[in-house]
Amino acid sequence: MEFIESTSRLCVLFTVMWQRDGVIHREKFYGDKVNMWRDLLPGMLKTDLLGKQVGERVQVHVKSDEFFQPYQENLRRTVTPAQFLPLLASNGDSVVEPVLGRYYPQSFLTGVPGVFRVSKAPCRYLAKSGQNMVFDLNHPLADNDLTVSAKVLSISNGIDERGGRCEDWLEAICADGPGMQSPLPGAGSLYFEPRSLSRIDERDDGLFYGSTRLVQHLDSTAREQISSGYRRILPADGAILDCMASWDSHLDNDFSASTLTALGMNRQELEHNGKADTIVVHDLNKSPQLPFADESFDGVVCTASIEYLKDPLTVCRELARVLRRSGRVAITFSNRWFPTKAVSIWSELHEFERLGMVLQMIQSTGEFEGLETLSIRNFPRPENDTYSHLPHADPVYMVTARKGKMESG
């Protein structure tokens, strides 16, 4: 049995956790070839890993002023409308009107010291100042205390290396979006204007979903992560609703629901769902009211479908209505969808902003507590996958919550 040495190379599952406005956020990130002698790890993580074995986990806390990009007040920049110049080479006729609370690439700003037109780093539109606009160029996690854990997945010893690239693993984990799911305080609804919920293809959904598709839309690693998440949060032996379902409800074979109701658009797909006890054909875009009595279920899941709803706020209120007190809801998506049927704002948002959109859907009901977001990224692509030439598995994004308890008298 191998132990971690100062020259070991590891595979690690990193988890970064933070809390903001009563919501717990977790980012899980697969770290391959973590080099113990060359790479940078936060706090005392490297020291604490020494001597550990596969399966063990260590954890450190990172204060906001210890973050690799600590918050700086001078990174709140005021710009004129003429300095907001989106680069839209692929869609030159479009006009981007900045929305309060939304993130944009810093490359959209011109004439701002320290900002380059090739920068993909995000900046957030905070406020109007007369005719001008205030943007925050700080990292989305800059003012948060973090808890960082590392679970050892594999250890390689006896590797003789010289030179090579030094990886700052906290910077790698926090790149490309974590933190962007947190709403801007006081900004209100950012996502649910009628224009935002329009679609390229507004024809009857029955025409599109009438074709039976007995295929997997996500790779096996992503599906395993979703099943694991559902097993963790759904009540054992409860009545479960799979909302906007198909032929696979993404539940483990050994998951013991008392009943599983699958509601979807295509009867043939639903009839192939071997786990479903009851199937219901129902178009939520025609009628967002669910055909179930109040407090019928102990858990609700919705997988890779939320982006197709034209009235998601009403549907989420319905999910709250049909859940029993303390029942759990989990809404999950990835970065793959049918673009003509998704609401227009979905393709405009960064992947982590989509987490914020789904989070706001659930919060808007006023019925849920214990809200959490989860992102899972950077796992290797399965070798037998159709798209095995891609380096990484499909990312998984999940929002979970618990229906609040009945207030006493």
Structure description:
With 409 residues, the chain is α/β, with parallel strands linked by helices. Helices cover 15% and strands 28% of the residues. It has helices spanning 45-49, 169-173, 205-209, 220-233, 267-271, 312-322, 344-348, 351-363; strands spanning 9-20, 23-35, 57-62, 76-79, 103-105, 122-129, 132-136, 146-156, 239-245, 259-264, 278-281, 297-303, 323-333, 368-377, 396-403. The strands form two sheets. It has an eleven-stranded mixed sheet with strand order 3-8-1-2-14-15-13-12-9-10-11, sandwiched between helices. A four-stranded antiparallel sheet has the order 4-7-6-5, with no helix packed on it. Strand 6 and strand 7 (132-136) form a beta hairpin. 38% of the residues are buried.
Task: Describe the SSE topology.
Elements: E1 9-20, E2 23-35, H1 45-49, E3 57-62, E4 76-79, E5 103-105, E6 122-129, E7 132-136, E8 146-156, H2 169-173, H3 205-209, H4 220-233, E9 239-245, E10 259-264, H5 267-271, E11 278-281, E12 297-303, H6 312-322, E13 323-333, H7 344-348, H8 351-363, E14 368-377, E15 396-403
Parallel strand pairs: 2-14, 9-10, 9-12, 10-11, 12-13
Antiparallel strand pairs: 1-2, 1-8, 3-8, 4-7, 5-6, 6-7, 13-15, 14-15
Largest sheet: 11 strands, mixed
Q: Total number of helical segments?
A: 8
Q: What is the chain-wise order of helices and strands?
A: EEHEEEEEEHHHEEHEEHEHHEE
Strand order of the biggest β-sheet = 3-8-1-2-14-15-13-12-9-10-11
Instruction: Indicate the structural class.
Output: alpha/beta
Bin the strand percentage: 25-35%
| Residue share in helix | 10-25%
Distance between the termini: 59 Å
